[in-house]
Amino acid sequence: MNRRLLLSLIFIFSTSFLLAQNDNNYKGAEDYFKNVGKVYWDGIFTQGAEVGVGIGEETQFISVYGSAYLGESTFFKVGGMYEFATIRGLDYAAIYGDLSLNYKLISIGNIFHLYLTGGGTAVYDDIYEDLQTQIDHDFSDFNGWNFGVLGGGEAKFFVGKRIALLAFANQRYFIQDGGFGSERYFAGVGLKYAFKYTFKQ
Fold first, then answer.
1. Is the pLDDT of residue 136 over 90?
2. What is the dihedral of CA 136, 138, 143, 146, to 10 degrees?
3. Which fold would CATH assign to domain 3-196?
4. Is the pLDDT of residue 137 over 80?
5. Whether pLDDT at 47 is above 60
6. Closest CA to 106 of 151, 154, 68, 70
7. Contacts of 49 (CB under 8 A, 6+ apart)
8. Percent above pLDDT 90 for the chain
9. In DSSP terms, which residues pair with 170 in a beta bridge?
10. What residues contact residue 39 under an 8 Å CB cut-off, 6+ apart?
11. Which residue from 54, 98, 52 is spatially nearest to 76, judged by alpha carbons?
12. Kind plus residue range of the DSSP H or E element containing 150
């Protein structure tokens, strides 16, 4: 695993949590939206559900995630991807589970937002025996599972009060070199729908 990447992710997590603690000066969602006067639902007291599609180096994927803000500039995201492809005439599939923190780098008019992403990831590679024989790789100790970290970015552009278009990319580093290797890159687009918190803090 890339040690510098791991240290960078720890720094991102720590900084994001510290910043989140100082972002919430409001009594609740209604107070927040009333005082800020927001047209688009983004920031603390909002949650989101999103779907996406994209590509890997030789594959395609669909993704589903849920998110919630920890502060005005920081939110966490949890969910996963289903990756699939036909390689050398044979089917391949993988299932990913992700947990990440996202920190806002740029915001323009509360319509466009750019985030830095860092987190952890797990994958189960479903590589059938017929496909294993076609790939120049040692699968003798392969059980399908692999764990690692991810880093990347996400851009969000609101097209309605609750609806935003997404564009994202991330690089993943896995502990083991089993499956399809220890480094994987993905990029895609998606659609996010925002919800508003109704409870008070």
1. no
2. -80
3. Porin (2.40.160)
4. no
5. yes
6. 154
7. 64, 65, 66, 67, 192, 193, 195
8. 43
9. 152, 186
10. 110, 161
11. 98
12. strand 145-158
Rounded Cα distance between 43 and 72, Å, is 5
Contact by Cβ (8 Å): 182, 176: yes
The tokens for 95 are 């299932």
Q: What residue spans define the domains of the chain?
A: 3-196
Phi, psi for residue 20 in degrees, rounded to 5: -65, -35
Could you tell me if 79 and 65 are in contact, meaning their C-beta atoms sit under 8 angstroms apart?
A: yes
Closest CA to 1 of 139, 144, 100, 149: 149
Give the 3-state DSSP-derived string for 27-88, with helices as H, strands as E and coil as C: CEHHHHHHHHCCCCCCCCCEEEEEEEEEECCCCEEEEEEEEEECCCCEEEEEEEEEEEEEEC
